[in-house]
Predict the structure.
Amino acid sequence: MLKIDLTELKRQIGGEHAFSFSLPLSELVPDLPETLEWQALDAVEVNGVVTNTGDAMWVRGGIALKARTACPRCLKQYETEFVNEFDEQYRSAESRQAEEERCETYTGDELVLDELVRDMVLTARPVAPVCQPDCRGLCPVCGVDRNQKFCDCEQVSIDPRLARLQQFFQK
Ligand SMILES: [Zn+2]
Ligand SMILES: [Zn+2]
């Protein structure tokens, strides 16, 4: 579990506590959804800071992990880092505010971040969205990987609205 001991921090309003965890994805998310479009290659790194704002524990930071995924343009597998950021207020479960508002809570002197971090991992995004910045992708006509081969298919994918505009200018 990703637990932070708040015993000290609860005594100091305005106080901060930095945290850092590293743990295998399988431990954090034992039931990975099959729809997930990447495979983890390394542990999940979690870094952040908790601040005691007086009426809540303000948690902010980020997660990062190395993963393999398919390039959306050429479908080739490539490796990149997946990242996400969080910024969340946790109120004491015993407080009145926690009852009134529907907000994240902590119980006693323990802040448990498992759920937050799990959500962050499952919605993380790749730092590099394609295999290489100038990936040419697959030819929509013959399907060849245009990073490896040339083809002389005619690329006729003009937006119909643009086609009309084009006619207009040809008159
Ligand atoms: Zn690609
Ligand atoms: Zn082609």
In short: The beta strands are 3-5, 16-23, 38-40, 44-52, 57-70, 77-92, 104-106, 110-112, 125-126. Residues 160-170 form the longest helix (11 residues). The chain has two domains: 3-134, 136-171. The longest strand covers residues 77-92.
